[in-house]
Design a protein that fits this description.
0% strand, single chain, 83 residues, elongated
Length: 83
């Protein structure tokens, strides 16, 4: 396990609880919506147990935003939408 001093700004416990990797090291490889959905899934129940469902809903929000974006791009590319 990494020897990381807890710091609510740069190394909060709810993002570095995994023994081998930090959340930010995963999220940085994804776009905004996917990275945020991972972040909220990662910390759900860890940052504040009373807000676990809220974090899961936030993850779902970003997943749905990503789906809407992809569907919108696919719709714009479909043959029926070309002149």
């Amino acid at each position: 396990m990494k020897n990381i001093k807890n710091n609510a700004v740069s190394n909060p416990n709810w993002y570095n609880w995994h023994p081998e990797i930090e959340c930010k090291d995963v999220c940085k490889h994804f776009n905004w919506c996917r990275g945020n959905s991972i972040k909220y899934l990662w910390r759900a129940g860890k940052k504040n147990k009373d807000k676990e469902i809220e974090d899961l809903k936030k993850a779902a929000f970003f997943i749905n935003e990503e789906i809407d974006e992809i569907e919108g791009l696919n719709l714009a590319k479909s043959p029926q939408n070309t002149i």
